């Protein structure tokens, strides 16, 4: 479907916004973020590279993805170059880091494990955070959004694919 990449992006952002009902902590004090980066030697936790033009810099990566209710907290954030952040997507960090190979792989894995053990974190779920009534409303919102998104795509396609 040509031209629907905006629908995919819109769906992602609205869905992620709705997830913040369950997992609201999506900001971190800059001091904490700087501390995390320093603890990883200002390098990407996955490939071990420093920030560069090629990898588009070091950004915060959710170990448990935001799409799975992972929050922006010390125990769920590691530094990643933008290239690794983009290519990892929703893959498990352990599966992803093995694809990076290269020297120091065992050390990078150990560093992430050490960081996670020092900062225990469990992502919330709708069932653990919301009451039965709130869970019902939340589920309805998700269904309504999926319906609106499908109708928008349908209208787009009828207008542009005729």
From TrEMBL:
GO molecular function, one term: zinc ion binding
UniProt keyword terms in alphabetical order: Endonuclease, Hydrolase, Nuclease
Keyword Nucleus included in the entry's annotation: no
Coiled coil: none
CDD domains associated with the record: HNHc (cd00085)
One Pfam family hit: HNH
Highest taxon in the source lineage: Bacteria
Ranges for domain HNH nuclease: 31-86
Name this polypeptide is given: HNH endonuclease
């Amino acid at each position: 479907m040509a031209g629907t990449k905006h629908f995919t992006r819109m769906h992602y952002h609205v869905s992620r916004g709705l997830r913040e009902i369950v997992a609201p902590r999506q900001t971190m004090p800059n001091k904490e973020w700087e501390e995390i980066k320093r603890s990883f030697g200002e390098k990407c936790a996955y490939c071990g590279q420093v920030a560069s033009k090629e990898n588009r810099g070091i950004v915060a990566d959710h170990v448990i993805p935001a799409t799975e209710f992972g929050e922006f907290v010390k125990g769920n954030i590691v530094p990643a170059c933008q290239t690794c952040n983009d290519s990892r997507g929703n893959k498990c960090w352990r599966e992803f880091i093995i694809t990076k190979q290269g020297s120091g792989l065992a050390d990078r894995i150990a560093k992430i494990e050490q960081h996670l053990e020092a900062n225990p974190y469990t992502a919330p779920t709708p069932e653990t955070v919301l009451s039965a009534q709130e869970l019902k409303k939340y589920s309805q919102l998700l269904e309504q959004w999926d319906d609106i998104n499908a109708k928008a795509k349908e209208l787009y396609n009828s207008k542009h694919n005729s």
